[in-house]
Amino acid sequence: MIRINENYNQLKASYLFLEIANKVAQFQSENTDADIIRLGIGDVTKTLPPACISAFHNGVEELSSESTFKGYGPYNGYAFLREKIAQEDFQKRGADIDADEIFISDGSKCDTGNFQELFANDITIAIPDPVYPVYLDTNIMAGRAGDSKNGRYKNIVYLDGTMENGFIPQLPSKPVDLIYLCFPNNPTGAVITKSQLKEWVGFAKEQKALILFDAAYEAFIRDETLPHSIFEIEGAKEVAVEFRSFSKTAGFTGTRCAYTIVPKECVAYNESGSKQLLHPLWQRRQSTKFNGVSYPVQKAAEAVYSSEGKVQIKQRIDDYLLNARIICKTMDDLKLNYVGGKNSPYIWIHGNGRDSWDFFDMLLKKAQIVCTPGKGFGQCGEGYIRISAFNSRENVQSAMERMKKIL
Ligand code: MLT
Fold first, then answer.
1. Using CA atoms, how far apart are residues 15 and 98, in angstroms rounded to an integer?
2. Which of 15, 16, 17, 246, when mutated, tests ligand 1's pocket best, judged by the most ligand atoms within 8 Å of its CB?
3. How many angstroms separate the alpha carbon of residue 42 from the centre of ligand 1?
4. Which tens digits make up the pLDDT trace of 114-128?
5. Could you tell me if 241 and 117 are in contact, meaning their C-beta atoms sit under 8 angstroms apart?
């Protein structure tokens, strides 16, 4: 008899963004004329930068001749891309990361979801609340979360984010083994300072724990005092893995390209308490289950680091950040409290006593705006909504006008 993985029965019925997509599709089918503005899922709307398009074309062209054709690529990604990443994203910021420590992949969603496979099933996990649902859901699937009561899982140590702590959770008060952090944060848009991040690195060292640091939104940082990478913190290489993505940086949400940094000295412990390096374990996992990102896509990603690519990317991100400022200004006018939107494409808005799904429904029905209900990111998200700045200026402006009319 074929039996299921019972852990799947512990999950909420639907993945958050699928649940929202279904609700919006239902609304659209009942209101065919509705001009819906989507500020929900953080999906980019601007094209790939011309520098990436041109490199993409050239990459495809190379596949048309036997002399330049490529079959399977290197498991960890082509050296031309890994070397650029190491120099431009890390070494130039004083973070000593080598090209060999970089694994190219098809997305940070997959990598943040898959990385937990390397660890024992009875480890204790600290997860922020609110949180990008992938971190929690993949640990539930693996059977680490335990039973749930009132929306919280017994074996998870929750790191509460609130207006009071500016959505920067405090260090856990009990021992934990694996810690998920994301800065600039999805969903709240909150950012962490170097000294705050230093405390987390120190805590991980003390606990012999590991930090999974999701930096998918680092390109939105405009405050130069903020860290772009956890590896800007001394000693982090032993206790942290970092996830980066071209999705939001360069518009690759559909094209798919990301990278994960597993430093050579990063460790976990085996049953007898001896250190074991994570780099060869992740290498083993990826080479078994993953066959790389296509050559033209990696060529397109490499163009992100060309001089034209850098200018085009900055223009795109500045444009989204201007949308974010327009959203923040509207929230100021409406006297709604919020965080984010300055070094992040997300604005996390307090609904002044509104239930987050009610607020979502009201915006959809009365203003045809899609947002993301805070509760979907965890219990601490109740009472909040997230608005994304990923859309055209015109749509963001219309959405804000519509919000002003109904609130
Ligand atoms: C989000 O809206 O939170 C993101 O787009 C989700 C993702 O990147 O997978």
1. 36
2. 17
3. 5
4. 999 999 999 999 999
5. no
Whether residue 384 is predicted with pLDDT greater than 90 in this model: the reply is yes
Q: Cα(186) to centroid of ligand 1, in Å?
A: 8
Q: How many CB atoms lie within 10 A of CB 265?
A: 13
Q: 40 CB under 6 A from ligand 1? A: no
Q: Domains for the chain: give ranges and CATH numbers.
A: 6-47+308-406 (3.90.1150.10), 53-305 (3.40.640.10)
What kind and span of H or E run contains 213? strand 210-214
Which tens digit of pLDDT belongs to each residue from 347-381? Answer: 999 999 999 999 999 999 999 999 999 999 999 99
Of ligand 1's listed atoms, the one at least distance from the Cα of 134 is 9
Q: Collapsing DSSP states into helix, strand and coil, what is residue 78?
A: coil
Amino acid at position 391, single letter = N
Is pLDDT of 304 > 90? Answer: yes
**Distance (Å) from CA 277 to ligand 1 centroid:** 30
Question: Strand locations in 3-74, DSSP E?
Answer: 37-38
Check pocket membership of 341 for ligand 1, CB cut-off 6 A.
Answer: no
**Alpha helices (H) in 133-211, listed in sequence order:** 133-141, 194-207
> Hey, CA dihedral for 81, 82, 87, 89, is it positive or negative?
positive
Alpha-carbon gap, residue 273 to 175, rounded angstroms: 16
- CA 248 – ligand 1 centroid, Å: 9
> How many angstroms separate the CA atoms of 275 and 272, rounded?
9
Backbone φ and ψ for 148, nearest 5 degrees, come out as -110, 145
Confidence band, pLDDT 50/70/90 cuts, at residue 33:
very high
Distances (CA, A) of 10 to 149, 177, 221: 11, 22, 36
Is a pLDDT exceeding 90 seen at residue 150? Answer: no
Mean pLDDT computed over every residue of the chain: 97
Length of the chain: 407
